[in-house]
Amino acid sequence: MKKPRFPKASIGAYLIAIALAIALPILAFVALLLVQLENNERDVLKRDTVQDAQALARTIDRQLQDMATTLRLLSSSPELERNDIATFFDRTETVLRTDSLFVLLVDKDGQQRLNTSHPFGEPLGKTANLAALHSALDSGRIEASDVFIGSSSGQWVYNVTLPLYHSPAGAALIMTQSAEDLGKLVTTDALAPGWSAAVLDSSGHVVASSGPANHASGDAFNRDILPKLIASSGVFQDEKILPHALLGYAQIPGWSWKAVVWGPVASAQASLMSTWRFLIYGGVTLLLIALIAVYALARQVRTTIQNIADMADRMGRGEIVSPIDTSVIEANQMAMALSNASFDRSETEDRLHFVMHELVHRTKNLLALAQAMTRQLARQTDSVDTFQRAVADRLEGLARSIEVLTSEQWSGVSLRRVIDIHLATFLQGPQQLDIKGRDFLLKPEAVQNLGLVLHELATNSVKYGALSAPEGKVAIEWTNVESDIGQMIRFVWTESGGPIVKTPTVTGFGTTVTKAHAAAAFSGSVEVDFRPTGLVWVLNALRSTMERERERN
After folding, report:
1. Which alpha helices (DSSP H) does 381-411 contain, by range?
2. Number of helices (H) and strands (E), helices first, in the chain?
3. Separation CA 112–CA 479 (nearest Å)
4. What is the C-alpha to C-alpha distance for residues 91 and 114, in angstroms, rounded to an integer?
5. What are phi and psi of 276, to 5 degrees?
6. CA 212, CA 191: separation in Å to the nearest integer?
7. Inter-CA distances, 466 with 289, 428, 494, 499, Å
8. Beta 156-163 vs 143-144: how paired, if at all?
9. 30, 220, 316, 510: which is deepest, by most CB within 10 A?
10. In the prediction, which pLDDT does 378 show?
11. What is the model's pLDDT at position 399?
12. What percent helix, strand, coil does the chain show, rounded to 5?
C-alpha cells in the first residue's frame, strides 16, 4: 500500500492548514498591492477624469446642436426667400418661445436686419462680433464664436452663426445666448469635492465654469496648460503647473470649444483608499475568526459540502435541482441559491432564445423596410444629392419611431405620443394641431408604419400645405367603424388655413408611402382628396393591425 504523502488528520486540521496556506501568501501579496494601489488608482482616476470631460463635452454639444438645428429650421422659412422680414420676425419669436435665446439676421457687413431682443422696426447697428461672422462666412459652415461682451445686454455672450446662401434677406442667421445661461449646464455634481469644470472657447477664454476655481466668463485660462491640450481628449498633469492636481479635457466634436475638468488628486482618491483599507483590515479579521470556527464546524461541513457538491454537479449537467435541508443555515442558503440559479438558468436560456428570435425578426423587418424605401427612392430621384436627402429624411422619421419603441422596450406606444413625436418639429406652435380620438396602444409594427406616413404627410404639409403658413392648421381624428371584415378605425388628416391646394400632376415616393404602403400595412384603404381649402387624407384600417392587445394577468 502506498504511503500517504500527508499525515492523517481531521477535516478541521486540514481546513486550518489550507486556510493558512492560502491566507499567508495572500497577505504578503496584499502588502505589495498596497504599495502599487495609489498608482493604479491614479490610472483609474485619469480615465474617469477624461470620461467626465467627455460627458461635459457631450452636454455642451447637445446645446450647440439644438441651436444649430433651430437655425437650420428658420433658414428654410419661406419668408426669408420672399424677404418678408416682418413675418419672419413673428415666426422666429414663435419658434424660440424663450427669453434666453435671441436670433439675429445680418448682412455680410454685419448690419443687423432683425434682432429678436429688440422690437421689430427699431433701428439696429452692426453685430458686436464681426470676426465670428466673417469666419463662418469664409468657412461656409455653422460655427460657435468665442465669448464676448454683447452690445445689447452688456453681458458675456456667444454666437452660433449659420451662413445663408443666395438669400435676399441677409448673409447669415445668428443665435445668441448668454454665457450665464450656458453655465447652468456646467455642473460639478458628479465630480469629487474640490473639483471644477469649465468650457473654453477657441482662444482659450472661459465661456462658462463652476466649482471652487471660480473662473468668470471671459477669463483667460492658464496659458501654460492650453498648448498641451492638443489631442481630441486626454489628461494633463504637471506638478509645477498643477501641484497635486489632475486635469482632463475633451474637444467638443464639430466645434472649436473644449470641455475641461480639474481638481486635487487626494480628494478624488480619498474614498477609494479608505474603502480598500477597510476591506483589507476586515478581511484579516474575518479570516482569524474563520480559522477559530473551522475546527468546530468541520464534522457538519463534511456532509454539507458533499451534498452541495452533488447539487452543483447536477446543476452543471443542466438539471433543475431542489434545495436540501442541512444543519448549517449558510449551507441551506447556498442550496436555495443553487436551486434558484438552476431554475433561473433554464428560464434565462429560454428567454435568450426568444430574444434572439425577436431580434432577428425585427432586424429583418427594418432592413426590408429600408431596402424597399431606397429602391423606391432610387427609381424616383434624378441625382445622388436628392437621393441622399430623401433617404436621410425618411430614415430620420423611422429613427424617431424606433427610438420611442426602444424606450418602451418594444411593447407598444400610444397613438397620441406617436403623433406628437413625428409632428413636434414641424409645428410653429401648438395651436396648429388639433387631435381628437380615444387614445390606445399601437403595435410596434404600427408605430413604424404610421410614423413613416405621418412624417411624410407633415413634410408635404410644411412644403406645400397648411403647415407652410403660420395660420395653417392640421386636424387629426380617428373613430371606430364596424364593417363586414371586423372593427375598423377611420383615421382622418385634415388641413386648413394654408395656401390653395392643387392636385399634383407628378407623384413620388411620398405618394407611395401615404397611399400604397399605408393601405397595405394596415389591411385597409386610403382616400386622398385635394380640396382647395386643404388636403384631406383618410385611412380605413383594421383595428387589429394597429392596436396592441393588452396582456392578461
Report:
1. 384-407
2. 13, 18
3. 51
4. 12
5. -60, -45
6. 12
7. 80, 11, 9, 7
8. antiparallel
9. 510
10. 54
11. 61
12. 50, 20, 30
Distance in angstroms (rounded) separating the CA atoms of residues 200 and 204: 6
Looking up cell 443666395 gives: 166
Pairing relation of β-strands 196-200 and 258-264? antiparallel
The DSSP 8-state label assigned to residue 60 in this structure reads: H
Q: Which of 112, 184, 180 is nearest to 151 (CA)?
A: 112
Confidence (pLDDT) at 56:
94
Cα first-last separation, the chain: 67
Residues 6+ away with beta carbon under 8 Å from 546: 415, 440, 442, 443, 446, 450, 489, 522
Which residues are 103's β-sheet partners? 175
Q: What is the mean pLDDT of each run of 10 residues along the chain (553 residues)?
A: 62 68 71 67 87 95 93 89 89 80 91 89 89 92 93 89 89 92 90 92 94 91 92 92 92 94 82 62 70 64 73 74 73 74 66 46 52 54 58 58 59 83 83 91 84 86 88 92 86 92 74 80 88 92 83 42
Q: How many CB atoms lie within 10 A of CB 17?
A: 13
What one-letter code names the amino acid at 65?
Answer: Q
Q: What is the DSSP letter of 226?
A: G
pLDDT in tens, 61-85: 999 999 999 999 988 888 888 889 9
The answer to whether the pTM exceeds 0.70 is: no
157, exposed or middle or buried, with CB in 10 Å at 0-12, 13-18, 19+? buried
Q: What is the DSSP letter of 78?
A: H
Q: Identify the DSSP state of 83.
A: T
pLDDT value at residue 117? 86
Q: Which residue has the cell 424605401?
A: 373
Whole-angstrom Cα Rg for the chain: 33
Are 258 and 252 in contact by the 8 Å Cβ rule? The answer is yes
Query: CA neighbours within 13 Å on the CB side: how many for 364?
Result: 6
SS3 state at 437: coil
pLDDT of residue 235: 94
Distance CA 37, CA 32 (A): 9
Contacts of 78 (CB under 8 A, 6+ apart): 468
